[in-house]
């Protein structure tokens, strides 16, 4: 058995040359993937995001080339949008019980929840169904 591996060495500023496979790869091939999404927060969740209900965002997925999942998006939201009290929005890797999630107006429970894959220009809505009184 022979083990093959890809060895990259800089050749010039525009390309990298693969020594073992012998073809050129553009430098932008290694950049992170960016996807434009619309995120909406309601039922009080907008208060966790500086009271902004609708966010048009470009989500950078470090796993370029793979589909962006809701699990990836929630981690991104926790890091980039939630300004205070993230425990009111998330529990572990998912949303807290009582938060309704719609992906393109469809309940995410019908599409795989955390495994739901997202496409460019998708709309994701988070609505808290829990209210004080």
UniProtKB/TrEMBL annotation:
Give one GO biological process term: tRNA thio-modification
Which pathway is recorded for this entry?
tRNA modification; 5-methoxycarbonylmethyl-2-thiouridine-tRNA biosynthesis
Q: Name one GO cellular component term.
A: cytoplasm
Origin: domain of life: Eukaryota
Gene3D superfamilies attached to this UniProt entry: 3.10.20.30
A Pfam family that the UniProt record links to this protein: Urm1
* Coarse class of the protein's main subcellular location: cytoplasm
UniProt KW keywords: Cytoplasm, Isopeptide bond, tRNA processing, Ubl conjugation pathway
For the keyword tRNA processing, the answer is yes
Has keyword Hydrolase? no
Localization: Cytoplasm
Recorded hits in SUPFAM superfamilies, A to Z, give: MoaD/ThiS
Q: Which family does the UniProt entry place this protein in?
A: Belongs to the URM1 family.
User: HAMAP family given for it?
Assistant: Urm1 (MF_03048)
Protein name according to UniProt: Ubiquitin-related modifier 1
Specify the species.
Answer: Davidia involucrata (Dove tree)
């Amino acid at each position: 058995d022979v083990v093959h591996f890809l060895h990259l060495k800089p050749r010039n500023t525009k390309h990298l040359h693969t020594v073992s496979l012998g073809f050129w790869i553009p430098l932008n091939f290694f950049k992170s993937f960016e996807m434009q999404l619309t995120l909406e927060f309601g039922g009080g969740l907008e208060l966790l995001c500086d009271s902004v209900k609708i966010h048009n965002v470009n989500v950078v997925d470090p796993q370029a080339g793979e589909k962006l999942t809701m699990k990836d998006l929630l981690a991104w939201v926790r890091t980039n949008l939630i300004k205070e009290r993230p425990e009111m929005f998330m529990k572990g890797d998912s949303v807290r019980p009582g938060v309704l999630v719609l992906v393109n107006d469809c309940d995410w429970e019908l599409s795989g929840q955390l495994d739901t894959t997202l496409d460019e220009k998708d709309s994701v809505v988070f609505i808290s169904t829990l209210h004080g009184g």
